[in-house]
Amino acid sequence: MELPLSNINLEKLPHHIAIIMDGNGRWAKLQGKPRVFGHKSGVTAVREVTEAAAEIGIKYLTLYAFSTENWSRPSIEVNALMSLLVETVRKELDTLKKNNIRLFAIGDLSQLPDKTRKALLEGIEKTKYNTRMTLVLALNYSARFEILNAAKKMAETINKDGKRVDEIGTEEFSSYLTTNGIPDPELLIRTSGEQRISNFLLWQIAYSELYFTPVLWPDFKKEHFYSAIIDYQNRERRFGMTSEQILKTS
Ligand code: IPE
Ligand code: IPE
Ligand code: MG
């Protein structure tokens, strides 16, 4: 059942919501259409959710758009996804500017086709001073690659500065990740009924609330997004403590 906006407690919003947008292919198949048609329809849901998130006051929205593993798909699909990205970023740029939304990207952008990377970097550059919400696209993203890279960069700094290894804490380690400066997501949503993480934000979701819905991504509407937030707001986040301890401090 979809719950309306009025049921959301605006005082208790997550700062950061991350979404694994899944089910485009199955959605297309159900209508006897090629998979690419599903991806195109998925853009509508991206627009809808971005708007909903900004409207209610979410500060960071991260969307998993393409995983490093997705390169293994048929090249016709990969090419279509890369073109769709260019097209979407270009088309939506004015709306992002008008709505004061900053575009950002995580993942290994260096491996993207030139056209895709250029469109993306242009979008990022042109919205960099926007303050209402940051829309983070995870592109050619792999959490393990990100963590490994962070460890390598940190090791380099240690070698250079002669810093002691036992001085490094989790916060310092986080600063080597591509999400540096972005708070960890309090809520992670995955559509399409799959209940797995698929190499997304492994470090950052250590204490995230997970929300799985059978809705296929192209069908995901504002109301589904609100339902996920309401579900999140009804949970007790204990961070290892007891329920009694949490109730005492809240
Ligand atoms: C998610 O939908 C979009 C991307 C991974 C780019 P899928 O394309 O994975 O759709 P299903 O899982 O095959 O239905
Ligand atoms: C995860 O979806 C990646 C994105 C949503 C971009 P997949 O559909 O690729 O995940 P798996 O392979 O089914 O786990
Ligand atoms: Mg999938």
Structure description:
This protein is α/β, with parallel strands linked by helices and 250 residues long. The protein has a single domain (11-142, 183-249), classed as Decaprenyl diphosphate synthase-like (Undecaprenyl pyrophosphate synthetase), CATH 3.40.1180.10. It is 44% helix and 14% strand. The protein has helices at 24-30, 35-56, 75-98, 114-126, 143-161, 170-174, 222-233, 243-249, and strands at 16-20, 60-67, 101-106, 133-141, 187-190, 209-212. The protein has a 6-stranded parallel β-sheet, sandwiched between helices. It is globular and about 55 Å long. The relative contact order is 0.19. One 3-methylbut-3-enyl trihydrogen diphosphate is lined by residues 20-22, 64-67, 70, 194, 196, 198.
Structural class: alpha/beta
The rounded distance between the terminal residues' Cα atoms is: 29 Å
Q: Find the CATH topology.
A: Undecaprenyl pyrophosphate synthetase
Number of helices: 8
What is the CATH architecture annotation?
Answer: 3-Layer(aba) Sandwich
Please bin the fraction of helical residues.
40-55%
The CATH H-level superfamily is Decaprenyl diphosphate synthase-like
Main sheet: strand order: 3-4-2-1-5-6
H/E series, N to C? EHHEHEHEHHEEHH
Write out the distinct hetero groups bound to the structure.
3-methylbut-3-enyl trihydrogen diphosphate, magnesium ion
Task: Kindly provide the name of the CATH class.
Answer: Alpha Beta
Low-confidence stretches: none
The number of E-state strands comes to 6
Mean pLDDT: 96
What percent of residues are in strands?
A: 5-15%
- Describe the largest sheet: 6 strands, parallel
Q: What is the radius of gyration computed over CA atoms, rounded to a whole number of angstroms?
A: 19 Å
